[in-house]
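Supplementary notes for students who missed Thursday's class. We covered one full example, reproduced here. Read the sequence, then the structure, then the short commentary at the end.
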Amino acid sequence: MRDYDDRPARHLWNFATLRSMRHRNFRLLLYGAFVSAAGDFMQNIAQAWLVWELTRSPVLLGVVGFFDTVPRLMFGALGGALADRVDRRRLLMLTQALGMVQAFIYWFLVYFHFVVFWHIALLAFFLGAVNTVNQLARQSLVNSLVPPEDLMNAIALQSSVFNLSKIIGPSAGGILIALVGVSGCFFLNALSFLGLIGMLVIMELPPWEPPENKHGIWSDIQEGFNYLTGNRRLFWIVALSYVIALVGAPYQRFLPMFATNILHVGPTGFGVLVAAPGLGATFSALTLASLGTMSPSLLWICSCALAFGLVLGLFAFSHSFAFSLAMLMLTGFFFIAGRASSNTAIQADTPRHLLGRVLSLFFMDRGLWSLGGLLIGSSAAAIGIDHTLAICAALCALAAVGVLFASGSSAGQAAALNVGAFRNPRPAESADPKQPQ
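Structure (token representation):
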């Protein structure tokens, strides 16, 4: 039975860029996710500003990033197996409720001046664990809300909505820090979780049927790992994402340092800096949504990673607020172009019953943000954040080039990897986990 709504398209959903919005359940997911994600990003900027005000330490900024993302490494595979075993809608509702509780605790501690650094680290770790399961359940649910021909469009639109919230959330957060303080941001974020919970409640989905022939959790995890390592194309995509996650993606954790020490702007300017990558990412995702039903190739994904490294390096040495904003927008554009394309390629090539587990291995790269944050923070304290970020940018660019050379080491491999700009997708259900791609 199909979970998606294939009733005739109406209104704006007739436009090709918005075609997956004609499915009611997917629309509801996007609406709720936008409100919830905007609140999350508002809390993120409040948390970063709070840590910087309490400690003035780049190392401790990296430590908070570590506690926020290390649960991806610790619980990612387990969360993927869980997303393949249980009702994904109910799982999303549970994770949203837990996130709301965390935000209310954060508000209480800050409002009554009880908060100390270890509270921040502990709450960041808790929310990181919750979001690990939440993201896997949400991404896996998308695959069942739209037909296969709309998958790339749906993933790109979800990414555009996510990054639109990345513009609005930090921008509002920077203003609200000045108006109602850090505690007010945490309180408003707690309320934002009700948006997605409400949308999930009114979705019309067929009754959930538990999977047949259940194995143990470890066997489930191993099955997903074996599929990924047996598919060379997906393996290289995930490997590249791990490198970028370690040395590139954590740059946003250190924007408070650029705002105060290099560009000399206050909390409002800091909010604009944080929002700039989201603006570029939103445009990138909408561009991908307009490309039709083609599945991105490894060449396209590596090109995006190379461009990301180049513009990140330019940002690292910028002392102009306007030029920094431009480079951050381009950084967001190329980062999300590569990431959304990688997500689409994985979902298009993975059988639905393995989707949660294979996606968990892809999204575990977020756990490396924590280690990268610690490395970047330590290096920034020694040689400066600008030189550190320039080195990281160079490593991202080299990794992209290296993956292309490694994956195309023979003509046979290059043909198997289908290294063109885009390629025709194949139905996920027909994928053979034992056949190298």
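Commentary. The beta strands are 295-296, 422-423. The longest helix spans residues 24-55. If anything here is unclear, bring it to office hours.
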